[in-house]
User: Which sequence fits this backbone?
């Protein structure tokens, strides 16, 4: 049996190792196993429950820049309308978690267990006691890179760009969700790793949701409109979903894309995407719309759309105020629209939740407003 090295107070030693040879020594507070993935950082001050359960983080080792993590614990797995109330999916999707200072004691009226207990139950390693400021500066300067958390036995580095991570997180069967109030419309949700709050936002607006797998033939689903969800990894790997988006747009039916869905729609429209140096991950990303109004948005993505590769049928809807990257597109003639950020938030500000109102109105009217 492999023996794990013990540190002070009997804590198990752990290392975070980057592809460039950098190594950060700390202690384990999650599952005591090694794991590899792509190391990225998130600038949010809270919301670790939502972030850890976000399928868009599949295969990634998440570095939280806020120093104190775990102080409010983890809520119970309560459900509303068949969806976990406080979580964005059924499981943690990270390859690992790295924080500066893990709080072993937690306090919150809704908390059921500690972050460490949740991580261990889900089989996800985590490291604390490292200099996350230095690590974040390195990732900003050199870009995200392959890395691994080593606890005991070493593991090889993993490259995610060519992996189909969407296939690992999408639903495997068709699932229907009914709104509590009167139904106004029916949407086919193409699940590339959907966050639960996207479904909640639609249900709140009286929209019935039919959730289908990422490679499902959605043309056979009776729907007033379609939504392509967020998800992990390289959008170019999701060829079946790109083909579905192309088919839906050829038929002229209302279509809305969020995050990865935004990138997939751009690819289906003949545009191209590229990988960002270190991505946008946090709850304080400023964006400006095409009328000059600014919003604070929640974001989690590593790829972006090249606006100038799209035809004149498409106009820029939102732009990131930090780096000028495209954050949304809208078709001038047909009911197609997409945003790179997360209008459903969870975690983060609700500044752009009105976009769900726009989409609901579009599918009710059967045309773009």
Assistant:
């Amino acid at each position: 049996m492999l023996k794990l090295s013990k540190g002070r107070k009997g804590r198990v030693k752990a290392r975070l190792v980057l592809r460039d040879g950098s190594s950060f020594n700390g202690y384990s507070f999650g599952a005591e196993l090694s794991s590899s993935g792509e190391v990225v950082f998130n600038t949010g001050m809270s919301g670790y429950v939502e972030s850890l359960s976000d399928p868009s983080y599949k295969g990634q080792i998440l570095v939280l820049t806020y120093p104190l993590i775990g102080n409010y614990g983890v809520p119970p797995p309560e459900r509303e309308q068949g969806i976990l109330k406080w979580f964005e999916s059924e499981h943690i999707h990270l390859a690992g978690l790295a924080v500066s200072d893990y709080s072993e004691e937690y306090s919150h009226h809704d908390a059921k267990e500690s972050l460490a207990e949740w991580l261990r139950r889900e089989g996800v390693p985590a490291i604390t006691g490292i200099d996350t400021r230095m690590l974040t500066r390195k990732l900003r300067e050199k870009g995200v890179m392959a890395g691994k958390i080593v606890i005991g036995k070493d593991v090889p580095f993993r490259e995610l760009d060519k992996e189909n991570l969407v296939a690992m997180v999408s639903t495997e069967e068709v699932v229907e969700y009914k709104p509590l109030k009167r139904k106004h419309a029916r949407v086919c949700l193409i699940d590339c790793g959907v966050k639960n709050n996207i479904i909640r936002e639609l249900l709140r607006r009286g929209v019935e949701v039919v959730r289908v797998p990422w490679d499902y033939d959605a043309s056979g689903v009776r729907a007033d409109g379609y939504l392509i969800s967020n998800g992990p990894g390289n959008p170019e790997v999701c060829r079946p979903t790109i083909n579905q988006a192309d088919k839906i747009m050829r038929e002229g039916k209302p279509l809305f894309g969020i995050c990865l869905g935004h990138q997939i729609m751009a690819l289906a429209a003949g545009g191209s995407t590229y990988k960002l140096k270190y991505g946008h991950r946090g709850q304080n990303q400023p964006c400006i719309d095409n009328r000059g109004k600014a919003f604070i948005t929640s974001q989690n993505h590593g790829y972006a759309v090249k606006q100038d590769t799209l035809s004149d049928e498409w106009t820029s809807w939102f732009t990131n105020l930090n780096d000028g990257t495209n954050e949304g597109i809208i078709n001038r003639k047909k009911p197609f629209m997409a945003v790179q950020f997360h209008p459903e938030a969870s975690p983060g500000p609700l500044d752009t939740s009105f976009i769900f109102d726009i989409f609901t109105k579009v599918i009710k009217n059967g045309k773009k407003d």
